[in-house]
Amino acid sequence: MVKCNACGGTYEPVLSDGMEYYHKCPPLSVVELAAAVAAGKVQLPVGETPDIAVTRRSYERSNQRDENIQVDPRTGASSPKSVGAGTTAQAPAPPPVIKVG
Amino acid sequence: MTYPPLPNAASADNAAEDLGLRFASSWYLRVDDNIRITSYNATANVVLQIRHRFVDLSGYIQASAETQTPNTDRSAKSTIIETPEGWLLGGEVFVSGASPTQGQTFVVVEIVRGSASSALSLQLIAAGYVTTKQPLAFANGLVGSSLDGGGALRVIAGTQPAAGAEISETVPTGARWQLLSFKFTFTTSATVANRTSSLTIDDGANIFNLAGGNAVQAAGATTVQSWASGQPNVANQPTNALGYPLATPLYLPAGARIRTQTLSIQAGDQYSAIQYLVREWIEGA
Fold first, then answer.
1. pLDDT tens-digit profile of A37-89?
2. Of A24, A42, B66, B272, which sits with the fewest C-beta atoms within 10 Å of its C-beta?
3. Are B165 and A26 within 8 A, CB to CB?
4. With b meaning 16 or more CB within 10 Å and e meaning fewer, what string describes B180-217?
């Protein structure tokens, strides 16, 4: 389990079926957008409130993490689209099935 | 083994010509022609076993066994198998080391000229998914699309967002999904407000589907909400389970997002236990 340092989301990089999971930060919620507006980080169109603004467009974090790959057409090598603010390791989540006794 | 010469094989040239008559001429390979295996895979620990038989100009039937370990991020991985001049009799690609299902390991087999990464593609001789139960035959085998078949059924545990943030799940690069079911738990803080969760689908920027919830969730409550194809609109009061229908079939390209959009969400509200069922195909990265 890891925690994304940009959005605070937590996830398993490898799922229980062994397949890789590619995290991408969500766009700002109404709560987060209202805080960003109050902090002067973004300005909304005149007359628009955060709850309306999030239905009209996506407000993304400048340090957002996007683990989905991009492929270099010359070399064929793949790399994450954006490492963003990185991740912090967390204690593993309990498995979905636990045998008792 | 050496194939017995034909009666008129008076010279080496005649022998080669006779072999050409004996074997399928469309699978004649020049000395600089080779076989290229390209895989697109989404599963860990997959190893491709590539085996084929080949008749060289002396009439000797060779058997070849090669391996390739595909990438696990759906990007292309190519391997060139060098062959002598002669005739390809046939071969197969099968899987060892893991048990991918239909929709997880796609293989393309081609005849190419050259042995470098820039080798010139000349002829597609097979393309299709390989599973533990289903090898891919060449050269007279299936030429299919990676979007064929029923796809891989996957249950995915999504990212639990921070408090006050929305759920957002993204279709990975190189994949195509059909969303079948989406479920989460929503716990509201003590801040007084009436929340309503909706499910929003976009292509990474533009919203093209909105599945609106219609239940109101007050402060200090927990609900389990699910959207699914064919599911009626239900609200089970004792268990706080909410069910909503989902547009079907809902195919999603790479980069598309499945998000919640919550009316009157508060800073302490928490989404958790995000689980969803998708059918997945490889489109390739």
1. 999 999 999 999 999 999 888 999 999 999 999 999 888 889 999 999 999 99
2. A42
3. yes
4. bbbbbbbbbbeeeeebebbbbbbeeeebeeebebebeb
